[in-house]
Design brief:
The complex is a heterodimer of chains A (365) and B (122). By secondary structure, chain A is an alpha+beta fold. Chain A has two domains: 209 residues, Metalloenzyme, LuxS/M16 peptidase-like (Cytochrome Bc1 Complex, Chain A, domain 1, 2-Layer Sandwich), CATH 3.30.830; 92 residues, Cytochrome Bc1 Complex, Chain A, domain 1 (2-Layer Sandwich), CATH 3.30.830.10. Helices cover 39% and strands 16% of the residues of chain A. Chain A has 15 helices and nine strands. Chain A has a six-stranded mixed beta sheet with strand order 1-2-6-3-5-4, covered by helices on one side. The radius of gyration of chain A is 23 Å and the shape is globular. Chain A starts with a helix and ends in a 7-residue tail after the last helix. Chain B starts with 5 loop residues before the first helix and ends in an 11-residue tail after the last helix. In chain B, α1 packs across α5 and α2 packs antiparallel against α4. Chain B is mainly alpha-helical. Chain B has one domain. The chains are: A alpha+beta (365), B mainly alpha (122). At the A-B interface, α5 and β5 of A face α2 of B.
Chain lengths: 365, 122
C-alpha cells in the first residue's frame, strides 16, 4: 500500500500539469437513461452501456436508519440481513446459488435514507437476478430461527466494528448523537444490544409490510442490455406485486444549534487520542450544498487536502485526517435529511498539546 | 470471529479441505464454481483502469495481449477429475500453515485437541 502510493507519486509528478486540465468531456457526458413507472408504483431506470458483457442491478428501498422505530435502533440494518435469508419460493441459500452460479456477485447496504441490494453479473444472468429480486419483493420467509441467527451476526458485526475497534466509529455514531437532538438523526444506527435483542419476528413482518413495497422502491438496471427488453422483463417479474401505502413519518428536521457542543469519552483500545468535529450542512437541494461538497473535498480529500497539508505535513500536529460531507456513510450529494460535515483527526498527545499552545486560534482543531 | 469459536471454525475448514482431497466435486458445485470464476473475470474487466492494469500485467508476465479474458475460457474447461487431482496434490493437511490471531490462552486451549505443533509470535 505504502510502496505503491509512493511509486504512484513518483510517476504522477512530472505530468501534474495534465491533471489540472478541466475534465471537459467528463462534464459533458451523461449516462443515457430511460425511466418508467409500473402501475404498482415501482420506478424502473435503465441505462445502456455496452462496453462489457455485464450488467448491474440495484433495488433501492426508501427506508433507512432515520425511519427505524424508536426502541429498535439498528433494525433497518438487521432487516437488510434478513432479505438474504430466503423466501417461501427461494429458501435460504437459493439467492447465493442463483447469483454466484450465474457468475455474479451481490451485496446490500443500509444508509440513513435507503437500503439497497446490488448485483453485478454477466448478461446471461439477467433473468434469474430480476426474478430473485422480484421474489424477495413479494414476501420473505419470516422465520424466528433466521432472525435469531442474523441478530447474532449483526451483534458480532457491532463487536468487530464498534466495541472491539479503536475509536469504534465514534465519528459516525457518537458525533451525530451529540450534534442532533431528534431520534431519527441522533440514534445509534448500528443498534444498541438491548434494542437488537428486543427485535421480534412481528417487527420484521410489520417493517416489511410498511416499507418493502414496489411503490417504495427504485429498480435500476445498467449494462449491456436493451432498454425495451429490460422493461419487458421487469413487467413480467414485478408487475403483479401489489402496492401498499407507506406509513407517514414525523418531521426529520433538527432544531437549530445555538452554541458549540463538546464531549469526550475514553477508549481503552485507542493508543493515541482522536477527535471528530461536525458542522451542520444545508439541505441537499440548497445551492449551498454543492459549495459545501466542494469545501468538504478541499478540506479532507487525500494528501493534497488542506487539513492533511496543514495538520499532518506542515505543523505535524496530527497523524491522520479523514472526513467530508455526509461522511463516512454517504456521498456529499446523497442525503435526505440533516447531515454533517465531519472531520476525523488522530493526533499524538504531546504534539497536539504543543500545537494548541502555539496556535491558540486553531484550538477547535 | 470470536476467540471462543476458534476450534469449531478450524474444524469446519479442515473438514471442507479434506472433502476436496477425498472426493470429486459434485456436478452442480463444480458448474457453479466455474461459472462464478468466469463471471467474475468479466466483472473485473468492466472498468478502463482494470483493463489497462490487466494488459500491463499480462505484458509484464511475458504474454501477448490476446491473453486478456482468456482465463475464463480455460477455467470453464476444467474437469472434476482435474479439480480433484489438484486438491489431492495441494490441499493435504500436511501442507497447511495455520495462523490464529487473538487471545493466546483461549486459542491454545481451543486448538490443543488438534495436536498441532504450535508456536507463539508476539
Amino acid at each position: 500500500m505504502t510502496r505503491s502510493a509512493w511509486m504512484g507519486r513518483g510517476i504522477l509528478c512530472p505530468v501534474l500539469s495534465l491533471t489540472l486540465v478541466a475534465p471537459l468531456a467528463a462534464q459533458q457526458w451523461r449516462p443515457p437513461t430511460t425511466m418508467k413507472k409500473l402501475p404498482n408504483g415501482l420506478t424502473v431506470v435503465v441505462s445502456e452501456d455496452h462496453s462489457a458483457p455485464t450488467f448491474g442491478v440495484c433495488v433501492s428501498y426508501r427506508i433507512g436508519f432515520r425511519l427505524e422505530p424508536e426502541g429498535r435502533t439498528g433494525f433497518a440494518h438487521l432487516f437488510e440481513h434478513l432479505m438474504f435469508e430466503g423466501t417461501p419460493n427461494a429458501p435460504k441459500g437459493v439467492l447465493d446459488q442463483v447469483i454466484e452460479g450465474g457468475g455474479g456477485i451481490n451485496n446490500g447496504d443500509t444508509r440513513y435514507d435507503y437500503t439497497e441490494y446490488i448485483e453485478t453479473a454477466p448478461v446471461s444472468a439477467l433473468d434469474p437476478v430480476l426474478w430473485i429480486e422480484a421474489d424477495r419483493m413479494k414476501t420473505l420467509d419470516f422465520s424466528v430461527k433466521n432472525l435469531d441467527n442474523q441478530r447474532n451476526v449483526v451483534e458480532e458485526e457491532v463487536r468487530v466494528n464498534v466495541l472491539n475497534r479503536p475509536y469504534g466509529l465514534f465519528f459516525a455514531i457518537d458525533l451525530p448523537g451529540k450534534a442532533f437532538d431528534t431520534y431519527p438523526n441522533a440514534h445509534n444506527f448500528y443498534g444498541d444490544f438491548k434494542d437488537l435483542d428486543a427485535a421480534h419476528i412481528e417487527d420484521v413482518q410489520k417493517f416489511y409490510q410498511a416499507y418493502y413495497t414496489p411503490n417504495n422502491a427504485v429498480l435500476a438496471v445498467v449494462g449491456d442490455v436493451n432498454s425495451d427488453a429490460v422493461f419487458a422483463k421487469v413487467e413480467k417479474y414485478f408487475a403483479a406485486i401489489p402496492s401498499r401505502p407507506t406509513p407517514p413519518h414525523g418531521p426529520l428536521e433538527e432544531p437549530p444549534q445555538k452554541a458549540e457542543r463538546r464531549s469526550s469519552e475514553s477508549d481503552a483500545l485507542a493508543r493515541v487520542p482522536a477527535l471528530a468535529i461536525g458542522y451542520h450542512m444545508p439541505p441537499r437541494h440548497s445551492p449551498d450544498a454543492l459549495a459545501g461538497a466542494v469545501a468538504g473535498e478541499l478540506l479532507h480529500n487525500g494528501q493534497a487536502s488542506l487539513l492533511y497539508q496543514t495538520l499532518v505535513k506542515d505543523k505535524q500536529v496530527a497523524l491522520e485526517v479523514d472526513g467530508g460531507v455526509n461522511w463516512p456513510l454517504g456521498t456529499p450529494y446523497e442525503y435526505n435529511g440533516p447531515t454533517l460535515m465531519t472531520s476525523f483527526v488522530v493526533y499524538p498527545r504531546r504534539r497536539a498539546q504543543r500545537g494548541y499552545r502555539s496556535h491558540p486560534k486553531r484550538n477547535h482543531l | 470471529m470470536r476467540n471462543a469459536v476458534t476450534a469449531p471454525t478450524l474444524n469446519e475448514i479442515i473438514y471442507e479441505l479434506n472433502r476436496t482431497v477425498t472426493t470429486e466435486p459434485a456436478v452442480e458445485e463444480l458448474t457453479a464454481a466455474r461459472r462464478y470464476l468466469v463471471g467474475l473475470e468479466a466483472i473485473q474487466l468492466q472498468s478502463r483502469g482494470a483493463v489497462a492494469n490487466e494488459l500491463a500485467g499480462i505484458r509484464a508476465d511475458g504474454l501477448p495481449p490476446e491473453e486478456i479474458g482468456a482465463y475464463g475460457k480455460k477455467v470453464a474447461a476444467t474437469t472434476a477429475a482435474e479439480v480433484d487431482a489438484a486438491a489431492r496434490k495441494y490441499f493435504p493437511a500436511s501442507r497447511a500453515a495455520i495462523i490464529a490471531v487473538g487471545e493466546e490462552k483461549v486459542i491454545r486451549e481451543a486448538l490443543a485437541p488438534f495436536a498441532l505443533p504450535m508456536e507463539t509470535v508476539q
